[in-house]
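Milestone M4 deliverable, item 7.
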Amino acid sequence: MQANYTFLRTPQFRVLGDEQLKRIHLASLEILRRTGVEMLEEEGRELLKRRGAMVDGTRVRIPPALVEWGIRSAPAQVTLCSRDGQPAMRLEAGRFYYGTGSDTRYVVDPDTGERRLAYRRDVADMARLCDALPNIDFVMCMGIASDVTNAISDLYHFATMVSNTRKPIVFTAWNLRNLRDIVSMAETVAGGAEALRMSPFMALYAEPISPLKFAAEGVEKLLYMAGKGLPVVYKPGMIGGATGPITYAGQLALCNAETLTGVLLAQLKREGAPVIYGGGFAPMDMRTAVAPPSPELWMLLAARAELAQYYGLPNYSYAGNTAAKVCDEQAAVDAAMSILVSALSGANLIHDIGFLDSHLTSSYDLVVLCDEVIAMAKRMMQGILVDEETLALDVIDRVGPGGHFLVEDHTLRHFRENWYPRLMDRGDHASWQSKGGKRLAQVVNERVRELLATYQPEPLNSEVAAALNAIIRDAETRR
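Output delivered:
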């Protein structure tokens, strides 16, 4: 009897070779050793100083060996759970997950098609929509609510999201005080601080200021989360040619230096603290002074994902975004390209699904369209299984020359493995016309409105919901 060997290779591609990755790593170490960073937060300076960094006022130069210690200390896997504590996303090599973007001032109204200010109901509706969509894995706040107290709008955002989805949440916090309140909310939902630490359903999104500036508020939030053992996405947001070099290698080296500083700070605060390696690039279009999604961006994000894999760290990326102002053909091209490239590059936690206008506007329709595209990418990333069953030698021999496979049990067992669209039409012209001859944009918008009208997420326990509202009321009275 022959052994039943199985061969499965996940599709992938690489932008950088091993030697290039090493050179970028060494360049980042040199940036931190020679140029250093401006560390405006006192605890951050003290943590670095105690471990051998050279501190001159707020300028801190970091020894290479210390940076590499921080990389080794950070966990290779970060697990994010659902709201009820069940593992939902294992951020590690070979796994990828998609979610929305965060904090846009505007949304495109799904009923009128008009661009308008975002309201708290949009935060709720976007969370509900994502909860309903099978290929959206996590949620961020798709709109800065213009109808709540601005100073604590982040509290309203978190409470609204966690009330409308069971999926993991990546959130932002305006300052340390608000972060404490948000973590208190999360602990209330999870059943206590230890329960949240063991099964976190949320991760903070935090950034330094490129180039090489670590503001007090950003570092305070990073250290607070690390101290509690809660996940942090640490992601510089660089504009090539403005806040970073115009060359791609220079952008990678500088962004990597900033990210590794964040990883190191978290480990100095609490060794083993869960940090998700990030890095944002936006090469500036010098004709418009805008930094739109572009082939250069996708290439840089792929290279940055390779750097994270070089370090063995879970990583954060983005896709499903566009410079288009509406959910049109341009948006579809940008979304499809970026979604596939992010999967092929080995990114793990991939956000910005549904962003229009170079991250300024959120689109319900683009979120739903991207859900379909992500399904295609996920199917493609499964690769091709090669074993005795799939080679089908006995079936081929039984059918023989000139036969057909329609009635074979083998066909019945496997035909459902093919991907089938929910929204796209693959029938003939007559059947398409019989269903109204609708363009994809119309089908997508109808699906958005259907879900918003009918889908209701699992509600929070009433006592938990009341406790979250009490935290917000208390925050309102303090301000």
